[in-house]
Amino acid sequence: MFANEDPFDRVARVALGLILLSLVVVGPRTLWGLVGLVPLLTGALGFCPLYRLVGVSTCRVSPDQITSAVGIGAHVWHAVQDRQRGAGSLGRNGASIAILPVIAARN
């Protein structure tokens, strides 16, 4: 599940969702306000299933950039795990794990 909503789109969805949800408590007090859960959740998650079906994305970050960021995060995770197991200064694939002292300092 990749983000397919721009930050402006997300904020607008959350605002619309909250306005619609307020109809349950304030105003006509109707359960139709629960429809506001849909834009609220899609805005909070940054993913719209309808956008996915239609093939639309308002997100400025491409899925390739998200995948590469996830890959970097996974690489750092494996490096941390190797360091905890005492694997030495080289992690998987021979990559240097010089970033680990920075991560350890934050903890």
Structure description:
With 107 residues, the protein is mainly alpha-helical. It has two domains: 48 residues; 44 residues, no CATH class. Helix content is 59%, strand content 0%. It has five helices and no strands. Helix 1 packs antiparallel against helix 2. The chain is elongated and about 65 Å long. The C terminus is likely disordered.
Q: Report the portion of residues in β strands.
A: under 5%
Give the total of domains.
2
What is the helix/strand order? Answer: HHHHH
Strand elements, count: 0
List keywords for this structure.
mainly alpha, 107 residues, disordered C terminus, 59% helix, 2 domains
Summarize the helices and strands and which ones pair or pack.
Blueprint: H1 7-25, H2 37-45, H3 49-54, H4 63-84, H5 100-106
Helix pairs in contact: 1-2
Concise synopsis of the structure shown:
The protein folds into 2 domains: 48 residues; 44 residues, no CATH class. 59% of the residues lie in helices and 0% in strands.
